[in-house]
TrEMBL record:
Source organism (scientific name): Halogeometricum limi
Domain ChlI/MoxR AAA lid: 238-309
Gene3D superfamilies (alphabetical): Magnesium chelatase subunit I, C-Terminal domain, P-loop containing nucleotide triphosphate hydrolases
Origin superkingdom: Archaea
Name of this chain's protein: MoxR-like ATPase
Alphabetically ordered keywords of this record: ATP-binding, Nucleotide-binding
Amino acid sequence: MSVDDIDRVQEKLTRVRGEIGKRIVGQSDVVERLLVCILCDGNALLESNPGLGKTTLVRTVAEVTDLSFSRIQNTPDLMPSDITGTEIIRESAQGREFVFEKGPVFANLVLADEINRATPKTQAALLEAMQEKQVTAAGETYALPEPFFILATQNPIDQGGTYPLPEAQTDRFLMKILVDYPSLDEEFEIVDRYTGGQSAPAVEQVLSREELRAAQHYVREMPIADDIRNRTVQLVRSTRHADSIEYGASPRASMGLVLAAKARAFVSGRSHVSWEDVVAMAPPVLRHRILLDFRAEREGTTPDDAVHQLLDEV
């Protein structure tokens, strides 16, 4: 990409946030992290209580960025074939033939609602899609469309009938994004905007798939100073020796944190990474990759507390 192309895409990303703001009130940090995750070609786990607009947010991101959208409502009786697709018998002029009918996972942006309600067998099918960008059905392998992202949600309350995600699967989410309640003024605006008789505000497609792919390529090529890269790796390595952490983050977290810092710099309109980018991205990239020591949990320490403490020490 030329300098002019980079400036144009960065300007469009600013417009993307503006278009999302037509439907989503507040949640600027959540929107930023979601865009960062997409620029990194990564998957995100969104955790919040019900009714905070996660589905509306993801659907709006798909519309603004010209990505095909699909939603999967996970339940305990959902089968892997319900997600990946299945072979069906189809009548034709030549007779009957088996045809693969693609499932909802064949979309650019897949919202997997309440992923922890799916059984481990179904979660494993999503795991292959997340990591390999392909699915296997009836002995055949099918490539998923590019770009491909899974944005999964889980509910921190009402955990009856849920299946905790295995560590191997949570580690494949680039970020765990926490969606909080809106402020009082934001809630006033939400009520006024959606109870006045008007339909949901229309949004304009701003970014094409080709521009998004080009932006992803540039993010990976963005330079990062050696001292910032070294501090970032040291931060991740320190999670493996901290007294408050029983299990630390893997090298995949080091790669993810460096890439997320680059993408945040790009979203912010810069062509270089600052330490502030690393500080901002460390909690969402690391919070689901560390397991606290039982004494730290007993004292009320959260994963974010542990990450911030390590940031102060690096």
